[in-house]
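<goal> How does this chain fold?
<body> The protein record starts here
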Amino acid sequence: MTAQQAEEKALAYFHQGYNCAQSVFTAFATEIGLTEEQALRFSAGFGAGVGRMRGMCGAFSGLTMVAGHCRGNLTGVPEDKEKIFSLVRELAAAFTTEFGTLTCRELLHLDESTKEGARPNERTQAYYAARPCERCVAFCAAKAAELLKQ
């Protein structure tokens, strides 16, 4: 899958209402040997900065899961673990260069004192216009496509 195809596929999931992590990760379900349902379930809790706590960007979490498939360690040996950790740090640096932060709350310019309810927001044109989420999803999907080609 090309980077552009990956972006389009991930954005199609996002526009259907799936969270950012689900959108990125599920775009690659068949490539990593999962069904769409499995990928959607595995990644469901990582959206909106993990459980809507507005921590690490969900799109980046989806990318991290694809990175784990590509280079995740299969032993507890420190050198094996370092391969995935180094890759994730490299991806994080690229994401931060592009967007300024890995933190969902900062990407959305939410005040630390802002307490949002547990209900996800309705996806409207205003929702998409006010958030960088589409760009984050597209960026992470393109990076994941590059990883799978290596």
